[in-house]
UniProtKB/TrEMBL annotation:
SUPFAM superfamilies: Galactose mutarotase-like, Six-hairpin glycosidases
Name the UniProt record assigns to this protein: Alpha,alpha-trehalose phosphorylase
Ranges where the Glycoside hydrolase family 65 C-terminal domain occurs: 694-755
Annotated ranges, domain Glycoside hydrolase family 65 central catalytic: 326-684
GO molecular function: carbohydrate binding; glycosyltransferase activity; hydrolase activity, hydrolyzing O-glycosyl compounds
The Glycoside hydrolase family 65 N-terminal domain, residue ranges: 16-267
Presence of keyword Glycosyltransferase: yes
Protein residues bound to substrate: 360-361, 597-598
Species assigned in the record: Kineothrix alysoides
Assigned protein family: Belongs to the glycosyl hydrolase 65 family.
One Pfam family it belongs to: Glyco_hydro_65C
UniProt-listed InterPro entries: 6-hairpin_glycosidase_sf (IPR008928), 6hp_glycosidase-like_sf (IPR012341), Gal_mutarotase_sf_dom (IPR011013), GH65_N (IPR037018), Glyco_hydro_65_C (IPR005194), Glyco_hydro_65_M (IPR005195), Glyco_hydro_65_N (IPR005196), Malt_Pase/Glycosyl_Hdrlase (IPR017045)
Length: 767
């Protein structure tokens, strides 16, 4: 496969570039993530976000409220930076290697997305003229998820002498803080306390416990030195007397044109997933060193070969965009949790932005990708929501609801972490988002067994909440005082997106109830929840009577009851330096204007497109387009999808535009803080759900491809009901191929076909 390696040559030592590359070249596997700091570190005075994170591992932090009103959140969960094992200093005949001293003759870094590692190569001349070639490979294993490795190879180019590796294992770490950035902690607080360190079987183990959450973690480090030809070596490990720092010193003779290699194994173990963290870490270390590193590389490659075979997406005619999209898909598999204890954070495992919280991003932007390419991972994400249902039930009671569940807007372990309720807890639509993702999983897999076991319970309990939060008025079912996706318009009545998602949620509660009943599988969940058919009928009635705002004059769905009565914000006359608006205008000032941070009603027209006519969708799109700032990275991909639906190819292309390149090319100049995982999933949707027109419906799989003028073509693979399908679109030809599995009925441009082998259409149908 081409275009699967991203490389930078002639690296800059500017601080912003170093921070950016810490993100771009980070390695993670969904369990553990390590930012790509220089192993040898930076000189004093350089800023760095030096971090290693475990997905779902957290502590409790205070969230101070100016007024202690009932139900206000006063504590939150926050992801923790755990023990640092990146550090490796290199001495060459006593001279310390540094990118900031001596002469760097060559420097490059790359990310190999086929083989699953980050690489770094440096050719360096020391101040005294000793020349070495350094090659470093870093990997977090998809096969053994506790394992992170650094392979550090040094070749002597013009001398014979001595080298020394000083390898660090540091348990004294803290989270990054920045008082100027609302997405991370404003001050450094010690959350993780090491309490035990020991050296056993040439490996060091550091145990630490959290300050308040009662969790513990153990990291193990083992260093192995190998070399070409006869190798004199000496290894000494000692514990620093001033703290929980283990220093491993490994010395060796090195001959000219020969290579000496340090292989550094790190394993992680946490008490969320096991009882005895040290015992588990020791077992993981024994497993890690039981085979050579080459075997781990091979397994990594095999894992990714299967991954790309299921999901690869190629764009013909735009190499930069194709590389950026593949980078995004690689980051998604790196970031997504692969067990029921974790999910996917707004920054993946590349940084501490948004404190490692999980949002609706998962269900609405990321899960659609996994549903179509790796449904087992999508199932894990649903299982995480199932496992935190008790917290969602408690959250509903706190907000005054006597039945149902209300999932928290942002969380790690299931409790609400949103300190500002107007744009946090008030976003009730998260219930509809989670319900929608379960329906989408079912439509793609027809896995009714999983629905009976877990999915239906979430659907029923989220649907119950709407009956409690809503009320009837003049024959319509209203949902008042909630916030939709647009965080520049908060706490409103009858937000269109929220109402239509609630309607969808309740209709599918009814659909699943009777579907399970037909298959003799409803009694278990109904008895557990004490749910009756009368309650299902109540949901059906509420859904049928749901009030969906509509304005006759404009022919659009107003975002909410009061939206059209507000003054319109003049985006064109707003100085560029005033964006994003939330950093320059008081929330109340924003709330009083027609201005959108991101797609809201327009997003509803994508997700719940059957609720309105195409004429209404088009008029709404054109109306909201003029007042949307796209200050959220979640916005332009949605506008691209709806533009595609409306046949606006040029607009669809422009909205996709640079958003796909957001992180790889640092478009917004903030990738240093971490990747934007939801945007990455959104870019996939903009191509597959947008340009290809893919939809999952009860009637089947629908496709309606169109091709932007700027591209020569594109192709992608999906899984549908156990079969693998490839779609390839080129100028004048669309090809649909059944790669494996049973034949499927699919819909192309509204016409039904039986896909048994290959279907070739020779013209594009106008939408």
């Amino acid at each position: 496969m081409e275009k699967m390696i991203y490389e930078i040559r002639g690296l800059s030592n500017q601080n912003d570039d170093l921070l950016l590359n810490e993100t771009i070249f980070h390695t993670s596997n969904g369990y553990v993530g390590v930012r790509a700091n220089y192993e040898e570190g930076y000189p004093q005075g350089y800023d760095t976000i030096r971090g290693t994170y475990i997905n779902g591992f957290y502590d409790i932090a205070e969230m101070k409220q100016a007024e202690k009103l009932y139900g206000f959140i006063e504590e939150k969960q926050t992801i923790l930076n755990v023990a640092d094992s990146q550090g490796v200093k290199l001495l060459v005949d006593g001279e310390e290697f540094s990118m900031f001293t001596g002469t760097v003759l060559e420097s490059r870094r790359w990310l190999n997305m086929l083989e699953g590692y980050a690489g770094r190569k440096v050719i360096w001349r020391s101040p005294k003229g000793k020349e070495i070639e350094i090659l470093i490979k870093r990997m977090t294993s998809f096969f053994q998820k506790s394992l992170f490795t650094i392979e550090y190879m040094v070749k002597a180019l013009n001398f014979t002498g001595k080298i020394e590796f000083i390898s660090f294992h540091n348990g004294e770490v803290m989270n990054y803080s920045n008082p100027e950035d609302p997405r991370v902690a404003s001050e450094s607080v010690k959350n993780l306390y090491p309490f035990d360190v020991r050296i056993a079987q040439e490996a060091s183990y550091i145990k630490a416990r959290t300050a308040r959450s009662g969790l513990s973690v153990c990291t193990g480090v083992k260093n192995i030195l190998t070399g070409e030809g006869p190798l004199f070596r000496e290894a000494v490990s000692e514990i620093d007397v001033n703290g929980f720092l283990v220093i491993h010193s490994l010395k060796a003779d090195i001959e000219k044109e020969r290579t000496v290699t340090l292989t550094k194994y790190t394993v992680f173990s946490d008490s969320i997933r096991c009882e005895d963290v040290e015992l588990h870490a020791r077992k993981e270390m024994a497993k890690a060193v039981s085979v050579n590193l080459a075997a781990w590389y091979e397994r990594q490659k095999d894992y990714l070969e299967e991954y790309w075979d299921n999901c690869d997406l190629e764009i013909y005619g735009d190499d930069d965009l194709c590389l950026a999209v593949r980078f995004n898909l690689y980051q998604l598999i790196q970031s997504v949790g692969k067990d029921r204890y974790s999910n996917i954070t707004a920054k993946g495992l590349s940084g501490e932005g948004y404190e490692g919280h999980y949002f609706w991003d998962t269900e609405m932007y990321i899960q659609p990708f996994f549903i179509l390419t790796n449904p087992d991972i999508a199932k894990n994400l649903i299982e995480y929501r199932y496992g935190t249902m008790e917290g969602a039930r408690e959250n509903a009671r706190i907000l005054g609801h006597n039945r149902g569940v209300l999932y928290p807007w942002r969380t790690i372990m299931g409790k609400e972490c949103s300190g500002y309720f107007p744009s946090g807890s008030a976003q009730y639509h998260i219930n509809g988002d989670i319900a929608h993702s379960i329906v989408a999983y079912y439509l793609a897999t027809k896995d009714l067994e999983f629905i009976a076991q877990k999915g239906a319970e979430i659907i029923f309990e989220t649907a119950r909440l709407w009956l409690d939060v809503g009320n009837y008025h003049k024959g319509n079912f209203y949902i008042n005082d909630v916030t939709g996706p647009d965080e520049y318009t908060c706490v409103v009545n009858n937000n269109y997106y929220t109402n239509v998602s609630a309607q969808y949620n309740m209709r599918w509660a009814s659909r699943f109830y009777y579907l399970l009943k037909e298959n003799g599988a409803v009694d278990k969940v109904a008895n557990k929840l004490q749910m009756t058919e009368a309650e299902i009928k109540e949901m059906e009635t509420a859904a049928e009577c749901m009030y969906l705002p509509y304005d006759e004059e404009y022919g659009i769905n107003p975002q909410d009851d009061s939206f059209l009565s507000k003054a319109r914000w003049n985006i064109g006359n707003t100085p560029k330096e005033k964006f994003p608006l939330l950093l320059h205008y008081h929330p109340l000032y924003l709330y009083r204007h027609q201005v959108c941070k991101q797609a809201d009603t327009v997003m509803a027209h994508f997700i719940f497109e059957d609720a309105q006519s195409i004429e209404t969708i088009q008029k709404s799109f054109e109306y909201y387009e003029k007042i949307t700032t796209h200050d959220s990275s979640l916005s332009t991909c949605i506008y691209s999808i709806v533009a595609s639906k409306l046949g606006m190819k040029e607009k669809a292309y422009n909205y996709l535009g640079n958003s796909a390149k957001l992180d790889l090319f640092n478009i917004h100049k903030n990738t240093r803080d971490g990747i934007h995982t939801a945007n990455m999933g959104g870019n996939y949707m903009a191509i597959v759900y947008g340009f290809a027109g893919l939809r999952l419906k009860e009637e089947g799989l629908f496709l309606a491809p169109l091709l932007p003028e700027q591209w020569e073509g594109y192709r992608f693979k999906i899984k549908y009901e156990g079969s693998k399908i490839m779609v390839q679109v080129k100028r004048g030809t669309s090809t649909f191929s059944l790669l494996s599995g049973e034949a499927k009925q699919i819909w192309i441009y509204g016409k039904e076909y039986l896909l048994q082998d290959t279907i070739i259409l020779t013209e594009e149908v106008e939408r």
